[in-house]
Design a protein that fits this description.
transcription regulation (chains A, B), transcription (chains A, B), Arc Repressor Mutant, subunit A, 2 domains, homodimer, mainly alpha, 9 helices, Tetracycline Repressor, domain 2, TetR family transcriptional regulator C-terminal domain-containing protein (chains A, B)
Chain lengths: 210, 210
DNA sequence: ATTTAAGTAGCACGACCATGCTACAAACGA
DNA sequence: TCGTTTGTAGCATGGTCGTGCTACTTAAAT
């Protein structure tokens, strides 16, 4: 009945294990899609027995939910770092490239972020018919729009963008553009190269600045 | 050995039946996602026995491929009609709204096109890991970009858009915007209303025209 | 040293899946 | 009229799935 503190290393191990299982899950999803991310396939990929995976995740659904939260966190960390980098830049002249870099973090410009985008699209589309995934999917959606909104508002306040912009419309427009680029890069990677994506993003930002 | 013409009505019936099965498939996909579109579920939805469905489609995969081709055709028909409407409009003054309407055909602005977009996204993401669906997915991708490219080039030639536009970049930008709007409308329909989508599209076209 | 908990593993069950195959009815061509 | 094709239906097989459950091992706690 005593719910006191236990041996320390155990807890750490548990967290590491959960992370390892999630990484295995991500590899399966990237390679074969969410529908193939069964407990069996994930356990195999992680080099564990199916029962071991279930020790850390009570159900298949819980594993998926946890994995999507993990993805959420990774994106959030990268965004937060980008925002801080912009805040640290004093003069407005330096901010342009930093804004482009921040928004570029949402695009699959390198192999890691490509994989991340693949997993993002897989989970977020799965969330349409899986209620347990919807909260995370919604947070990701809103998070991107919040970042984009802040960036635009900040640029206006610095005089980098005209003050008469309809920020609600511009936020949705830029967010949809980023989503669209990521989606096409995931679905047709041969046709949507990093160069194309950066050119499109740069053009969009330049045009916003008139 | 005689491969001659058979009784006429049979062929018609067969085509009608295949269409009915595909419609049932679309309803299942819309409601529960591609992963639930098993032969059993589709047969139930169509009110047929599983064996009957298999009489028209030799395999599950063939059914999916046929269904995606059907979707391809529907989109193509609507696009062709829109293009003709633009070609029929003589003066350049009338073309603006027609262009907006044509590109709007690619957005889920009403219930029917919303369903169509849901199915589009489901199939096209499934195509990432299903080789048999890739050709259709690629054609849809290229088709949209061809239409968008023609529209932009036409607008330039009519003087409605500045001649110094980088059409390759603008084509990808507008196509990604349309894809992104459709995706977010499918995944977060409550947050991405038809009004938002039309406002974003209108704004983009207006800005292109400088 | 003994108890307690956590980690690992695997079996068994019921459900669902695609597909090969057979059977029967209706309609058509000869 | 007979035989062939076409539509409809259902059975059996082999596979994958999530999950409940049990067993064994390791290590920490008392």
């Amino acid at each position: 009945m005593h719910v006191l503190k236990r041996g320390v290393p155990r807890v750490v191990d548990a967290e590491v294990r959960r992370r390892a299982v999630v990484d295995a899950l991500f590899r399966v999803v990237r390679r074969e899609g969410v529908e193939q991310a069964s407990l069996r396939n994930v356990a195999d990929e992680a080099g564990l027995a199916i029962g071991s995976v279930r020790h850390y995740f009570d159900s298949h659904d819980e594993l998926l939910v946890f994995a999507l939260r993990e993805l959420e966190e990774r994106v959030e960390v990268r965004m937060r770092a980008g925002v801080e980098r912009i805040s640290a830049a004093g003069t407005s002249g330096e901010r342009g490239p930093l804004v482009e870099a921040l928004l570029g973090e949402l695009l699959p410009l390198d192999a890691d972020r490509h994989d991340e985008s693949v997993i993002w699209l897989a989970f977020v589309t799965a969330a349409r018919t899986r209620p347990s995934l919807r909260p995370s999917a919604l947070r990701l959606h809103q998070g991107v729009r919040m970042i984009v909104g802040k960036v635009l508002a900040g640029a206006v306040s610095y005089g980098a963008l005209p003050a008469d912009l309809d920020l609600d419309v511009e936020r949705e427009r830029l967010a949809a553009l980023l989503d669209g680029l990521a989606v096409t890069a995931v679905l047709q990677p041969d046709l949507t190269t990093p160069e194309v994506m950066t050119a499109v993003l740069r053009r969009h930002l330049a045009e916003l600045a008139r």
